[in-house]
């Protein structure tokens, strides 16, 4: 599991988060049963994402085995995530800082909905189980709170990636795919 302890508040002696060295991106788990994220933590998350040149997250839960996963995630602009669905799990997105778009797809790949999230737009999006979706930052960095039931198992059959979309390894093709998907319903949202 996690190894490197990390304290978000300079000058405190309590390490609130521990680095998950097994994660694919900069990820930290809460070290206390009662965890929280404040504005200074959001600023620190921005620094971590810049230092790591990619997404970063603070998990308010203790481990991948936790039954409820509550994460504050920074997604940099220009990062593509292949649309996916969870067969048995609902998911909640809540924007914290910046702007992003959440795109919902039908089984066929047809765009069902496009939600622009930001302080002046949609604040929360709830995605039901068995519903393909993806999200993308509209600002240099979008920070959002995501909630989903656990546990997380990288090889789980509950998470299904959309065959109608490029894989995560095809970032440029994926970005074009999402741009076209958004433009099909919302010409007022620009992803460039």
CATH class: Mainly Beta
Strand order of the largest sheet: 1-2-3-4-5-12-7-10
Number of strands: 13
CATH homology superfamily: Jelly Rolls
**What is the molecular shape?**
globular
Structural class: alpha+beta
- The averaged pLDDT comes out at 91
If classified by CATH, what would the architecture be? Sandwich
Question: What is the count of DSSP helices, taking H or I runs of 4+ residues?
Answer: 2
Q: What is the succession of H and E elements? A: EEEHEEEEEEEEEEH
Could you characterize the architecture of this molecule?
This protein has 192 residues and is of the alpha+beta class. It has 2 helices and 13 strands. The strands form 3 sheets. The protein has an 8-stranded mixed sheet, covered by helices on one side. A 3-stranded antiparallel sheet has the order 9-8-11, with helices on one face. Strands 6-13 form a two-stranded antiparallel ribbon. The longest helix has 15 residues, at 171-185. The chain starts with a strand and ends in a 7-residue tail after the last helix. The model is unreliable at 1-14 (pLDDT under 50).
Using brief descriptors, characterize the structure shown:
192 residues; alpha+beta; Jelly Rolls; eight-stranded mixed β-sheet; three-stranded antiparallel β-sheet; disordered N terminus
